[in-house]
Amino acid sequence: MTRQLALLLLLAALPLAGCGKMKEKIPFLKSKAAATPALVVAAAPVATPRPKPAPAAPVRPAIDTNAQVVVLCYHRLEGKAGGGLSIEPALFEKQMEAIKEAGLAVISMQDFLAWRRGEKNIPPKSVLITIDDGYVSGFDVGVPILKKYGFPATFFIYTNFVNSGGKTMTWAQLKKLRDDGFEIGCHTVSHQDLRRKPSKWAGDYESYLKEELETSKKILEDKLGIRCVTIAYPFGLHNAAVHAAVEAAGYEAAFSTYGARLGHGVSPFTLGRYDVTAKMPGTQQVFDVAINFTGMAAPSDGPAMAQDAAVAMITEPMNNTATTDSTPLIKANLASFGEFDPGSVEMRVGSLGLVPAKFDAATQMIEYKVDKALREGSYSVIVTVKVGGQPREARWTFYYNTIGEVPEPAAPVTPATKPVRKPGKK
Fold it and tell me: Considering the domain 68-300, what is its CATH architecture?
């Protein structure tokens, strides 16, 4: 014990540098050192974060800008008794069958808009089906036939017409259309000419346009929970001021009733539709011209293609006037077009369609004598020419009735309020 204590004291006095050698020479210290090896703690590897790959940009398809679209416009599907805006249900089905047999693709409005935005392709020859106003025959007759052929369609609704009784659709039926995958667009509040303020409108023209375009859009969106980005002009009538208001209201596309083949670059606010109830000279039918893609091609987007004939040219009957002649002479001086191709001159009249008008290059006058008595109502006249290979048009409206007066704009249709019935005593 005394010996070991002396050795320990000796070790404590030695320089630290010699400790290792001394332990090697003293047996019992060597064994203890071996029994307690030094603890070595390995450093944990530091994880290097891998950079996240950048999200791949969506690959847009190569868009076929040569594809063409024709838009069909229907109103009532309730037979001859419905008047000029009607076709028989059997004829509507026959036309849907003809589209199917022709191998044409019927596309949705969303597909059409996506193609125009460059987001997706459509078949080279495509058809859009639209049904205007909100007649219940579109729901009762049109929908079952459209479903039978698997065709999408867009219903353009003017909001004062909904739930107004008679042959109108209800909000519940419009919700069913939405749930069945059909699309719903706007047709304004009261279905009046957007180019001028009605005499009974208390505010200015801007407030009138705001009411017709924005209020109707909001009603449809709030009632149906949809995003409404398309509109059809009442009677197909529009001008540059209307285009600007439509764009400001947030619409992506606006449709008239002036039929034309639509290309990729056509103006979004002058999109033509073929009114299948309109008549053409001879035996040719508007529907056949449409689905055979033989009609005029709409011009690409650019300077406004239309001019207001009321300002630009002398017409007969004059713009926004009435005549008592049931077979009037319709004519216009085309000098305001400047230099144009005389062989390109065409005239279309309301429900008559393309008419065999005569053009005199020397006097610059175009005229057409109506050969069958007109029905009372309004008639739009559209004259087209080609300037430098590009179509230009002018249009005006006249009225025919037995009193020779321009009718007052129709008052907005408002749903009848049902009286509240008090519960009776039992």
Answer: Alpha-Beta Barrel (3.20)
